[in-house]
């Protein structure tokens, strides 16, 4: 994305998270982004189109950034990748509450689920099943990924509402997910509580 597109996406996330939907006018978007209406109309077809575009870009950026960081740190074991990815996203919601609230509100929509099911986390789940790290049937992969998404969205909510710290929510959620996938308790707890890579900018 160019600089203008990034500003528009950031403004859109703030407004959509605050409103809980796409009940936003083009004038409000232009004002929030600090751009002229002409610039907005050259870059945005409609509020609805911008919503889909911003959500798609955010989900892709989150998953791709996490994957790159873990690849660089040689985090290769599927359960460790899953636990690390969960904790990184929960931490990011704490550090960027606007993004977190957007994901809490829209993370379980049909589009968001489709995007997650075609991204790096799904490939890691499938690799864990293929290599026997998860003791579940291959045809459970989609259901397992849906479980992960629901658990992560819930964990972000508990953090944003002040019920848990990001460390508590991320660690407990990651451990419970690994246990559900068949990783034994002691190992699941260890994988879900190790050091985290630094969070890069999206």
TrEMBL record:
Annotated keywords: DNA-binding, Membrane, Transcription, Transcription regulation, Transmembrane, Transmembrane helix
SUPFAM superfamilies hit by this protein: Homeodomain-like
Organism of origin: Kutzneria chonburiensis
Segments forming domain HTH tetR-type: 2-62
Protein name, as recorded: TetR/AcrR family transcriptional regulator
DNA-binding region(s) in UniProt: 25-44
Membrane-spanning ranges: 140-160
Gene3D superfamilies: Tetracycline Repressor, domain 2
Keyword Iron: no
